[in-house]
Amino acid sequence: MLLFVPETNALFVMLILSSIAISLLAGVVISVYLGVGILPSSMEMTSHGIDLSKELFPFVFFQSITILGLLIVAVVLYISHPFFIRYRRGIQSLSEKDKDIQEHITKLAAEAGIEPPTIEMPLYGLRGSDAQVFGIGKTRKIALDGGLRIFRKTKPHLFSAIISHELGHIANFDVGKTYFSDALSKSIRWLLIVPFLFVLPIILINEVFSSPLNEATLEYILRQSPSLVVFFQCIFVSWIPTIIWRRLLKTRELYADWRASAWGYQQGLSEILQEQVEKNKFKSRFNPLTFHPETEERLHTIKHPEILFIPSVSFVLLAGILVSYILAGLTFSFSVTLFFSGILDAIQGLFTGLFLGMHTIIKDLIFAIMVLPIFIAVSWLINLVVLSQVQRQTVMELINGKIGIIQYIKLGIVSLALVIGIEIGLLTTPFTPLFPDNLSEIPIELLINAPTLFFLVWWYLWYLKFITRKIYVTQTGKHLSVWRNRFIGIASKMWIVLFFSPGLFLSRFFGYGASYWDLLYISWFIFTILVSPLIFGVTWLLIKLFFDHQFIECPHCGKKMNNARSSNVLCDYCGGILREWVFLSETQISTY
Amino acid sequence: MWTNTRESKELTREITKDIINDIAPEELRFVDDLIDDYYSDPIIHKSNDNPLGFGSDLLVASTPIIIMTLNTVFNFILNEVWVSTQKESAVLIASKMKALFNPTKKTGADLQLTSKHLSIVKQLIKREAIRGGMKSQKAEDLALKIVGRISLDN
């Protein structure tokens, strides 16, 4: 049972999108440094025939080839991960002598209400205490170290805690996503980052030493040379998937721990992690190659699960940066459109009649096909990231009874983080035509585009928080209603598609001297001002009609209370607890 | 090296079982399996950080650690204290070592350790036990237990 949009899902999507974005950016950098192809201007959408297509071909080719290469390698690595795990850990299916281990784990899985996984471990050996869930598709397997044979008999409660944590991953549906993310981050590292870290410094050094080193040369390098700027931009861009990957690893562990705690293994997990913390005291603190989350953090989260409900500003900032990198994909969309338009123009002369009419339609279709994925990707990302943050924050506030206008005003921080992220992303995108490159355009970006975006996001967050609170506050029972969640999801996506994403897209072309785009931007602005309050009102009406139960009956005394309220409140008449609430077990509720 | 001989392994097995009985009785029924497992590959492999695993690096059993520490103590005694005995037969060394580690038997005067030696042995045991993954307090207990057996003889 999923609680609400899990953060691991959002991170998984972020990693996939960042991989695609980084591939496209790598394609741009490669074609620019190889001196092949041209970069299309952001506003220049007029086809110039086959000559333009010829010039654009290398650019489109390099972008396509990097993205394809990255995804193919990632898929191969993902498919082969069970093989590598088996090889590295020396594991195989359990033999007859270990069948009681399978029985033990099947029992734990049955208690947790999930399909029992298959267990694999070394045929012999009594060392190690690690476990790892893996598998492709619906196949789920858990790899165990040989030492767990002993552990199961000497400390069965700790053995069950470790296994429950792994079962937590299965229950959270994060296994396949994690291994695909692992494969993606490996392919990014080896196909893009490592070659870039070698090639770009060589280009930079070549620029320095190709001319005599004097003050004028240095000034040229610092002020004019794009390599230095592009080098730092590339480092920053390459760093983003790593940050997302680390966060994904951390988040999935914390949620699996939380899940195992909810199944009753909080004590066992705490004991294991406490021992780990004590052992770590004798180890070096700083290890840049360690990707596993800090044990202290895991221990702290088990003791204070409310941490999982605090919205993360850095997470939203990261999403903002990524939005800009996805937007940079527009360059690819425009290139492909122009490339095919050129070909169509060239072959136009060969046909007459019907084809002439189709010609424009085909061009528009290509444009739509190429731009739509970018539009969908941005909307998808914003919906996943922001919705999960707002949902968690709302749950936390309902538990704490903090309901008021201040909570809405505080959303301004989240909004600001997203906009700052978008601006940082634009600033660090190599060779982007979507960010001001001269002084006259910067005030437009800072005084018009950024503030408009800020208020646009804030308004969206108000809407989201309003509907989430209205729907969650009347939620009864431990399991969140699918329909309630679906309603929130649809409302959020509709708002993004109607107001947010078009605004974000059009803001990239506003104020650059193209009156067509300026007019579209102003039209969108007026549309948002007029229509969004209407949508707000209609949503509220729908909630009132379908979700807002007017009365709640006390399960103890049977009396009805007038208004629906949040859970865990007491009956006005008998003082009994009205109902258990979604998301949290009774044990966890009592910890708040 | 004497610690690789059959006599040494037998003595180690005997002492380990005694100590396990005191510090980790729940392991007693698996001690033979654990000792065999240790000797099949005596090198302690450092666990690699596996970000996709549980992340547990717990001490599964105390038996391998006790064997490690005993081997370290044997080596120290043979190399630093009883240097002359290195040329003696494995059986004779085992007999002397057994006497040293057996609190119930009094032994000859040539098998004495000074208090300074005992202090070094204690430190060695503790360091080796922590290296093997034992918690500091448990390593201290183990060191006291082993040194206690030696000092009882002297």
Descriptors:
heterodimer, A: 592 residues, mainly alpha, 3 domains, 4-stranded mixed beta sheet, two-stranded antiparallel sheet, 6 strands, 70% helix, 3% strand, globular, disordered C terminus, B: 154 residues, 6 helices, 61% helix
Provide a short characterization of the protein structure.
The complex is a heterodimer of chains A (592) and B (154). By secondary structure, chain A is mainly α. Helices cover 70% and strands 3% of the residues of chain A.
Could you describe the 3D structure shown?
- The complex is a heterodimer of chains A (592) and B (154).
- Chain A is mainly α and 592 residues long.
- Chain A has three domains: 7-283, no CATH class; 311-548, no CATH class; 549-592, no CATH class.
- Chain A contains 17 helices and six strands.
- In chain A, the strands form two sheets. In chain A, strands 1-2-4-3 form a four-stranded mixed β-sheet, sandwiched between helices. A two-stranded antiparallel sheet of chain A has the order 5-6.
- The longest helix of chain A has 55 residues, at 226-280.
- Chain A is globular and about 80 Å long.
- By secondary structure, chain B is an all-alpha fold.
- Chain B has one domain (2-42, 58-153).
- Helix content of chain B is 61%, strand content 0%.
- Chain B is globular and about 50 Å long.
- Chain A binds chain B through residues 124-132, 134, 143, 145-148, 150-151, 153-155, 158, 162, 165-166, 178-179, 182, 249, 253, 272, 275-276, 278-279, 282, 287, 289-293, 295, 298, and chain B through 24, 26-27, 30, 33-34, 37, 40, 45, 47, 49-61, 64, 130, 133, 135-136.
